[in-house]
Structures are given as structure tokens and as C-alpha cells.
């Protein structure tokens, strides 16, 4: 199992459970999380979903070894839903989604916060969008959602730099709502989740719909732009150098790439 599911007080807790891989999303975990979100959306006894990770990581993003295989192995077999299915499920999720960032969050482990209604973060956790260090484009409508969430310049730094963002920096820019000591993170996130879950589900859904409906067209357009850029860059010289360097345990060297890369 790559995902733990627990129900209590109308809160469904989803715990990403690949701790040895810092909860990086392989195809199995993408599929399991997608199906869990869809099931929670349809379950009349679930009011709120709380998403967190097991171990030292919240999520290290897409599993880079699988990403390398996808780019280089013609026989690679993708999952049923994959990354696109997870983002579809996040866009469509009608109930409050609370993220408790317990450890490192890279890639989708950061951009998923654009879909969170509330985000809590451990004081020792860190976030990173490593797109430029991987030679690829943004994902999950982050090019649209992050500027709205944190402002253009903070979003530009997060998306362009591929640098680590501390918990305090994430709180100051508005990427997360609360920063907690590690032992307080889940109790505090759960306390807020259960407070919301005590409200009428129909009202929670109505509030979220009225807040997110105006964003849908922007999200769709951003995903189209990002996907086109990702297809163009995936498997290109910069991306292959980044993935090869990761597989070989070294830092990528982009200075020797052809002009324009």
C-alpha cells in the first residue's frame, strides 16, 4: 500500500506512504491518491480531507527514476490516472482540502498547495519547485495559482529559482497558512479539520464552489500552456541531462548544452 486512509469525525486523512522515497509519486501513488480523492468527494459521510505524508517527507514530487524511464524506455507503462488524473481530481474536489506539510515538499509536493483550502507546515519542513533544475516547465496550474496565492514576485522566485523555501518564508509569502512545531502539526491541522467537519457539508461545498468556480477557466488555460511547454521540454537536452545526472548521483551541468538550452 502506498496510501493510508483513516476516517474520524467526518475527516478523511490521506497519508502518502512511500517513506523510503520521501513519498515521491510513482504511478501507483498517483492512482491511489486520485481514487481516494474521488471516493471522498462522493462519500456523504466525509466532510473534509486532510492530506499529509509519512516519515521525513510530505512528497518529493514525481519519482525521478520513473520519470527517467518514461522519457527513455519505449516499453514504460503508465498508470491508470497518473499525474494528470491527480490534478483533475484536485481541480474537481468539492470539499475542503487541508494539507499538513510534515517534511520536504518538491514539485507536486509544493504545487498541490495551490489547491489546498488551508495549509499547515512543520517548522522544519522545506519546499521547492525544481522545474528549472530539471529542465522542464511548471505544472498543476502553478503558473496561474501561485501568483494569485503569493503575488507575482514571490511566485516568480519559487518557480524560476528551484531554490528551497523555508517554512517561515512560505508563511510570510502566504504559501501556507500556519507554521507549527513538528509534534504539533497534525494535532493542529486535525483540530481545524474537525472544526470545519462539524459544519453542514452542503454549506462547505457551496462556499468552496463559489470561491473556486471563477478560477476554473484560468486553471484550464494554464494547464494547457504548461502541458504544451512540458511536452516541448520533456526529453530535451536539459531534461535528459538533469535526469541522467540524478540517476548517476551528480549535479547536472547545463553549461554544455546547445545554445538556447
From TrEMBL:
UniProt name for this protein: Enoyl-CoA hydratase/isomerase family protein
This protein's UniProt keywords: Isomerase, Peroxisome
UniProt xrefs under InterPro entries: ClpP/crotonase-like_dom_sf (IPR029045), ECH/Chromodomain_protein (IPR051053), Enoyl-CoA_hydra/iso (IPR001753)
Signal peptide: none
Subcellular localization: Peroxisome
Organism: Nocardioides aquiterrae
CDD domains per record: crotonase-like
Domain of life: Bacteria
Pfam family, one: ECH_1
Amino acid at each position: 500500500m502506498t496510501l493510508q486512509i483513516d476516517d474520524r469525525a467526518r475527516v478523511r486523512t490521506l497519508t502518502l506512504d512511500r517513506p523510503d522515497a520521501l513519498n515521491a509519486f510513482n504511478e501507483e501513488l498517483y492512482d491511489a491518491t486520485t481514487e481516494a480523492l474521488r471516493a471522498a468527494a462522493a462519500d456523504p459521510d466525509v466532510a473534509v480531507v486532510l492530506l499529509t505524508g509519512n516519515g521525513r517527507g510530505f512528497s518529493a514530487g514525481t519519482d525521478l527514476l520513473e520519470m527517467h524511464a518514461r522519457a527513455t524506455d519505449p516499453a514504460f507503462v503508465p498508470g491508470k490516472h497518473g499525474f494528470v488524473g491527480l490534478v483533475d481530481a484536485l481541480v474537481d474536489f468539492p470539499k475542503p482540502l487541508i494539507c499538513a506539510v510534515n517534511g520536504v515538499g518538491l514539485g507536486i509536493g509544493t504545487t498541490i498547495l495551490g489547491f489546498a483550502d488551508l495549509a499547515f507546515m512543520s517548522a522544519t519542513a522545506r519546499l521547492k519547485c525544481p522545474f528549472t533544475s530539471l529542465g522542464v516547465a511548471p505544472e498543476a496550474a502553478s503558473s496561474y495559482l501561485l501568483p494569485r496565492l503569493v503575488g507575482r514576485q514571490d511566485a516568480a522566485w519559487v518557480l524560476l529559482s528551484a531554490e528551497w523555501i523555508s517554512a517561515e518564508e512560505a508563511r510570510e509569502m502566504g504559501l501556507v497558512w500556519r507554521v507549527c512545531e513538528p509534534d504539533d502539526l497534525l494535532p493542529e491541522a486535525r483540530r481545524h479539520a474537525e472544526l470545519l467537519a462539524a459544519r453542514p457539508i452542503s454549506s462547505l461545498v457551496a462556499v468552496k464552489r463559489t470561491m473556486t468556480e471563477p478560477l476554473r477557466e484560468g486553471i484550464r488555460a494554464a494547464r494547457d500552456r504548461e502541458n504544451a511547454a512540458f511536452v516541448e521540454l520533456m526529453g530535451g537536452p536539459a531534461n535528459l541531462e538533469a535526469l541522467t545526472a540524478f540517476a548517476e548521483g551528480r549535479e547536472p551541468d547545463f553549461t554544455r548544452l546547445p545554445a538556447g538550452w
